[in-house]
Design brief:
With 474 residues, the chain is an alpha/beta fold. It has 2 domains: 216 residues, Aldehyde Dehydrogenase, Chain A, domain 1 (3-Layer(aba) Sandwich), CATH 3.40.605; 182 residues, Aldehyde Dehydrogenase, Chain A, domain 2 (3-Layer(aba) Sandwich), CATH 3.40.309. It is built from 14 helices and 21 strands. The strands form 6 sheets. Strands 12-13-14-11-10-16-17 form a 7-stranded mixed beta sheet, with helices on both faces. Strands 7-6-5-8-9 form a 5-stranded parallel beta sheet, sandwiched between helices. The protein has a 3-stranded antiparallel beta sheet with strand order 3-4-21. Helix 3 crosses helix 4 and helix 3 runs antiparallel to helix 6. The longest helix has 25 residues. One of its GO terms (biological process) is L-arginine catabolic process. Belongs to the aldehyde dehydrogenase family. GO terms for molecular function: succinylglutamate-semialdehyde dehydrogenase activity. Keywords: Arginine metabolism, NAD, Oxidoreductase. It holds the Pfam family Aldedh.
């Protein structure tokens, strides 16, 4: 059978994976298998489910280097960065167990002769749609707590990272997890539409763009009883105040804006500075540091700081947004450029958009940082909130009072003070406001949406009131 799509190594362009889109019949069979398996899996005690997850954790540890190498080849990340992704996946098992103990605790109370009980039930069959930028860590962040809660899973990786999805499935297959608990389908847009609209699903956990998330919201608006958890992008602000240590500010800005070549939903997209002589020094030092950044393929020695974008098309999209901003009166301070290494290799860029006739409020998924100059801190917060997104926001400041004011007024779900915006921990919540999510934060709080609380009033025997009602008397 002729393959529908392929992926190639970002190191040597060798074939990594080829295959076909899962058919509608294939999706239907997978959903039915997951639904049948759910009946027994949901009855399995939590402690036993955790043992299966520990087996998977052992597989991740044993295959850490080979899995990280595959992610580097398929996505283009440097090997050092892919290893941190596998580390996060390994930690997720214990973090999810801790989250269950903290947040999903059955409750029992007495109300006279009646016992009041609250317990938690899994939803059923959940689909997980994974993104390409963290093809292991981000879907794993949904899958682990969902399995622990007693759901069965159908995972559709991004069509840009199918090999990573297959490797992930292979590790599960090497555990004793019952067949049908974790399932994989492959494909692009049509496969995603076929799965998301299947009547047999009980919910969908999505990480990706706002446009796709909006379409899923429309689709699920007719089925309010089904779970939909959306983790989408952002047009994230980083406000920088005058501080003594200029190098620290430059480090945080570069880590926030350019790590993973800007392909993180949490990355800074807008750098908000008070118009001052200090800010000019900062920009000058920032440009010098950017020129020193090593960019190259994952197998380059010594390892680069940045790899390529996921595709040539993604690089061209960054250049189009840059040119659009210039057309709107933006001033390029450091243009993005395609390198001779390949058409998906692009240098980080800086553009001053203070004088733009209008702002482009969209997520530029690449290494382009927009600079906005303001008069004071109050205006900086207003500018930071001037977006329909609300995922992350950062502040670099030596003032605790400014941080308190920033926390109070900023409209974003993940905040950072004097640390990179891209270093969110799985031991906290991770979710956005406004167009960045639908109020279903993941990470430590993912356990919340993986089950639903059920209230129960109980008595071992039927109870009569102490005073018999008139209508019950003979």
């Amino acid at each position: 059978m002729k393959p529908d799509f392929k992926t190639f190594s970002k190191c040597d362009n060798s074939l990594l994976w080829e295959g076909v889109n899962t058919s509608i019949d294939g999706i239907d069979r997978t959903v039915k298998l997951a639904k049948t398996t759910f009946k027994e899996w949901s009855k399995t005690p939590l402690s036993e489910r955790f043992l299966y997850l520990q087996q998977f954790q052992d597989k991740l540890i044993a295959n850490k280097d080979s899995f990280a190498k595959l992610i580097s080849e398929e996505v283009g990340k440097p090997f050092w960065e892919s290893k941190t992704e596998i580390d996060a996946m390994i930690r997720k098992i214990d973090i999810s167990a801790a989250a269950f103990k903290t947040r999903i605790t059955p409750l029992k109370k007495k109300n006279g002769k009646i016992a009041l009980s609250t317990f938690f039930k899994p939803h059923g069959v959940l689909a997980v749609f994974g993104p390409f930028n963290f093809p292991g860590h981000l879907p794993n962040g949904h899958i682990i707590p969902a399995l622990l809660a007693g759901n069965t899973i159908i995972f559709k990786p991004s069509e840009k990272t199918p090999a990573t999805g297959e490797f992930y499935k292979k590790l599960w297959d090497e555990t004793d997890l019952p067949k049908g608990v974790f399932n994989l389908i492959q494909g692009g847009k049509e496969t995603g539409q076929g799965l998301s609209s299947h009547n047999g699903l009980d919910g969908l956990l999505f990480t990706g763009s706002f446009n796709v998330g909006k379409e899923l919201s429309k689709l699920y608006s007719n089925t309010p009883g089904k779970l939909l958890a959306l983790e989408m992008g952002g047009n994230n602000p980083l406000v920088v105040r005058e501080i003594q240590e200029l190098n620290a500010a430059v480090f945080i800005i570069i880590q926030s804006a350019f790590i993973t070549t800007g392909q993180r939903c949490s990355a800074a997209r807008r750098l908000i500075l008070q118009d001052s002589e200090w800010s000019e020094y900062l920009i000058e030092k920032l440009i010098k540091a950017i020129h020193k950044i090593k960019i190259g393929p994952p197998n380059q020695i010594p390892e680069p700081f940045l790899g390529p974008l996921i595709s040539d098309e993604a690089a061209q999209n960054v250049l189009k947004i840059e040119q659009k901003l210039i057309h709107l009166n933006g001033k390029s301070l450091l243009p993005c450029e395609i390198l001779k290494t390949g058409k998906s290799y692009i240098t980080p860029g800086l553009i001053d958009v203070t004088s733009c006739n209008e702002r482009i409020d969209e997520e530029c998924f690449g290494p382009l940082l927009q600079i906005v100059r303001v008069k004071n801190f109050d205006e900086a917060i207003d500018e930071a909130n001037h977006t329909n997104y609300g995922l992350t926001a950062g502040l670099i400041s030596q003032s605790n009072s400014e941080w308190q004011e920033f926390q109070h007024r900023i409209k974003a779900g993940v905040l950072s003070w004097n640390v990179p915006m891209t270093g969110a921990s799985s031991e906290s919540s991770f979710g956005g406001l406004k167009n960045s999510g639908n109020l279903r934060p993941s990470a430590f709080f993912a356990v919340d949406y993986c089950s639903t609380p059920i209230a129960s009033s109980e008595s071992y025997t039927p109870i009569l009131p102490s005073s018999t009602p008139e209508w019950l008397k003979d």
